[in-house]
Amino acid sequence: MMISGKFESLLKTADSICVLTGAGISAESGVATFRGTDGLWSKLKPEELANFDAFLRNPDIVWEWYNHRKQIIQEVKPNAAHYALAAMEQMVKDFTLTTQNIDNLHTRAGSKRVLELHGNIERSYCVTCGKFVPDVVVTREQRIPHCGDCGGVIRPDVVWFGEMLPQDVLEESMSAAARCSLFLSIGTSAVVYPAAGLPLKARDCGAYVVEINLERTEISHLVDESLIGKAGEILPQLAEIMKTSRSQK
Ligand code: OAD
Questions:
Q1: Most exposed residue of 20, 114, 149, 165, measured as fewest CB within 10 angstroms of its CB?
Q2: What's the CA-to-centroid distance between 187 and ligand 1, angstroms?
Q3: Low-confidence ranges of the chain (pLDDT < 70)
């Protein structure tokens, strides 16, 4: 792995670091990405599953799909990239991890503070009264879960197409991006906004922006450095570099 002297020095000294992750960071755990040849959206039409109207029309089909993904996610394990980010959090005073992933793998790897821009598949809530419902179980007999309090339909707590992102999470991520000196954009195609705006915000505010991806992306020409390779191989090496000059928080 070749990195610039500037990047190495920031890894060793930066007090404020931000990270944005996308589906690519979980690919080595066995969770399919959205785009690319094997991506989910090349086989399924997102507009048929990932929006509220589709859910109201066919809640059973949407639940079957999320139940299926939930099972896959529960069976896989965090990989070296998730663990490396959890280790980095322990070494940096002001460390912000924002993820577009709903798979909960950062938390399972030990990251303490994870800003989830697109929700979390482990959580659900009632569309009528808003109550959060943990441990939703969907079975062949009960294909659509209902709220124990008001009887409303329960939905997964994930952001669908056309829906607002959680504004507090977005604001916290944006302000962290604006104040950091190093920003890492990892395993994201950087085509979905506002998430893809975070590295650009950081760059505009003076941060050094490094992208880690298997291939070049929409924002490659705008970042300071692109590391081409697997997140699970590159991130542990970056965490090692950090360790040489830092102690635990
Ligand atoms: P994408 O599927 O668009 O992009 C995944 C990226 O990860 C691609 O650029 C791959 O090249 C890269 N990649 C794959 N394996 C990798 C590896 N081992 N190491 C490093 N990079 C790797 O996923 P996202 O950018 O996360 O939104 O997609 C953004 C949003 O689009 C998702 O959060 C989802 C989707 O619609 C919602 O559901 C709201």
A1: 149
A2: 6
A3: 47, 248-249
